[in-house]
Amino acid sequence: MASVNSSTSKDQQSNVLKSIMMRSKSALVVIFLLSAMINIFVLNGSIYMMMVYDRALPSQNMATLMGLFAISAFIYVVQGYFEVLRSNMLSDVASKVENTAIPLALRSAHELAVRNNSAEQNNSPLRDMDQIRSFIAGPGPAALMDLPWILFFLGILSLLHIWLGVAALAGALVLVLLTLISERANKHSASAIADLTQKRARLIERKRRNAETVQSLGMRSRFATMFLDLNAGLSAKQTAVNESATVISTSSKTMRMFIQSVLLTVGAWLVINGQVSAGVIFASSILAGRALAPIDQAIAQWRNFSMARTSWTRLSQTLESHGEPEQRTLLPRPKGVLDVSGVSVVPPGMELPTLHNVSFACEAGSVVGVIGASAAGKSTLARALVGAWPLTSGTVRLDGAALDQWDCDRLGQHIGYLPQSVELIDGTVGQNIARFDPSASSEDIIRAAELAGVHNLVLHLPKGYETEVGEDGRNLSAGQRQRIGLARAIYKDPSFVVLDEPNSNLDPAGEQALGLSLINLRKIGSTAVIITHRQAVLRFATHILYLVDGKVADFGPRDEVLHRIKSQSNVQPMAAAPAAANSA
Prior knowledge:
By secondary structure, the protein is of the alpha/beta class. The protein has helices at about 1-15, 15-20, 25-40, 45-60, 60-115, 120, 125-135, 140-145, 150-160, 160-185, 190-210, 210-215, 220-270, 280-320, 380-385, 410, 430-435, 440-450, 455-460, 480-490, 510-525, 560-565, 575-580, and strands spanning about 340-345, 355-360, 365-370, 395-400, 400, 415-420, 495-500, 525-530, 545-550, 550-555. The longest helix has about 55 residues, at about 60-115.
């Protein structure tokens, strides 16, 4: 039964974009009907021309001429209205598809960013969604929907005379051949151009974000060289594609004009031989122009179509790999009972795990200090505990429920996390502490700040809690960012808090505030895991987890573990730990 459900879910995920598109099925049917009417109305010009030459001029009847003109003018007005209506409906369909798919694309983009998979980041779901929307709302779909009507116009030309149809068909085949040549020539170039454009944009962004480092270390010329190399490759690709497109487009237009001249010649020959009337000459020229125009338009739009098709395929694969969010049972607020069993983690972009079969457990209200040498896997463990990085094996359970059993946003309300590198989001101090919760109250924000010991610090900022932190919190010092990040982590008294090197940028006042925060967390029954290199903070721990090369070397009550570590002659860096702990 489970396998059946899994198979069904897989099919739904792989067809997610198609199913979203089919939600506009009724609108698409109307659009196709409008396209049919527009193409039928195109006959208006040819029929009017024939009627003028074959009826109005021979009879020299002004009433006939004006009547034909009035009918033709009315049809042109209706045709124009239908074309505007079709264009507007395509824009509405594009908006509907985007509004439905964008939450899934946004979710996929977020997961890719969290996992830091650069290969997948090159194919951003949001950029793909923009490309798809732009194509649907543009002239491309109309050109594609007009293509099947080529056969209709060729049939009408054949009814006028078979040789007119044959001449137009030969021209159409030549234009189709040019389209296929264009597709073959640009098949891989569009994807390569998109990748190079994104690489160049990322390089510019990295230089901007690290402008101070680049300036102070004399790296500007190196970044300039890297940029020029990327830009040269991009320019070469774009030039090649543009030159190819120009050749194909010019050849197409020239061929279309030549075919119309051929049809005029064939028509004149038929008139001279008395096989058709004179009006057929001009009518066939108009019909041929209309018959070949969709091919010309398709060639002009082929690059956009190719890019949209690539984006559609790529986005479909991305949504399939991440799947649609499952509906989960809303679990009650956890108490903070933590159970880590057999956890192994391979960091994104790496092949080997940095955590190997890590297991430990603690009751609610515990404070676990995680120690170990650099590259022991401490920060990897922190990310795994809060669900930021996926587990290769094992489980992390909170109150008996694995993290993947929780709704992500709901679980986040009960978790506090302070990463090693604190980045605040562009906004005010208050917004950052409240995690940008629109319903946050001033009382909750101030309470979190007071528990983190940062309330007075915030009040001394230029605008207090309304102070703008700037992009990535650049308007604040590293210590200020870390203390505000701590307040954000303990906002609304989370049940489980993970602090990765929370005192790395703190002065003595900040360290004292951190200690008070840990005491407050224990008082309210929250479980805390603290990654640290500084031993002073261990005096607040109830348990110690000692990692060596990604494996658990020891775990247990603080004093017992520190005593065992001190007694091990091969672990010199931790010898000072007991003194710091016992001095508490």
